[in-house]
Amino acid sequence: MVRLDDNGDALIRVRDLDKTYRRGGQDVHVLRGLNLSVDEGEFVAFMGPSGSGKTTLLNLLGGLDLPTAGSITVAGDEITHLSGPKLAHWRARHVGFIFQMYNLLPVLTAFQNVELPLLLTRLSKAQRRRHVETALGLVGLKDRTDYYPRQLSGGQEQRVAIARAIVADPTFLLCDEPTGDLDRRSADEVLALLSGLASRYGKTVLMVTHDPRAAERAEVVLHLEKGALVEGTTSGPEGNGPTSKPAET
Questions:
Q1: pLDDT tens per residue, the chain (249 residues)?
Q2: What is 40-63+83-245's CATH number, 3.50.30.10, 3.20.20.70, 3.40.50.300, 3.40.50.20?
Q3: Angle at 51 between CA 48 and CA 53, to 5 degrees
Q4: pTM metric for this prediction
Q5: What is the DSSP string of 115-155?
């Protein structure tokens, strides 16, 4: 269950998180005293206006940036105490990233793009092949193994990107506007896939989105405003989209 207060058994625990940047001689407070707990296997969407801190929060959760104050604990590891090679190793083991623009390498096939994270592991070539084929099968693209990104639709490219994100079996997925560059049909396919990864395979999915229809696919929708979580919604009892739920602070 997602909570905005302490839950010692949660997979992800964020405590009193602050992030401040120095710009033009002034301090810009992006996140202020944020608290959050997310259990394993939940699909959470973050919404809010531009500048509210959504992408900053994702970057901090993924170890791409460090907070000014506070702590982030994932599966018992407090990542705010890690740096350099240790943080990079933690990130490679625990986080799968999915971006709006796919970030596929155009000179590599779908297979080779998905295989990239595994090249840093000790898996044999045969083991890597099995992992890649499994991941591409999960996203419905096993028949596109030898296709290059230019030969794929936008939705297919994003599914390759999802396969790359899950191929190393990460602890959780971070999705930054994963449907922002897709038409509605392709977006619905990608969202159904992300929802299935959470519901059928127990993957924890955290997604930033501006699209209310995308957010409806999540179990919980949290709203950020001026660096604080101000409102939450959870899926309705009949599966008819979110219903309002006050933020717990």
A1: 667 666 668 999 999 999 998 888 888 889 999 999 999 999 999 999 888 899 999 999 999 999 999 999 999 899 988 888 899 999 999 999 999 999 999 999 999 999 999 998 899 999 999 999 999 999 999 999 999 999 999 999 999 999 999 999 999 999 999 999 999 999 999 999 999 999 999 999 999 999 999 999 999 999 998 888 876 665 543 444 444 444 443
A2: 3.40.50.300
A3: 70
A4: 0.88
A5: HGGGGGS---HHHHHHHHHHHHHHTT-GGGTT--GGGS-HH
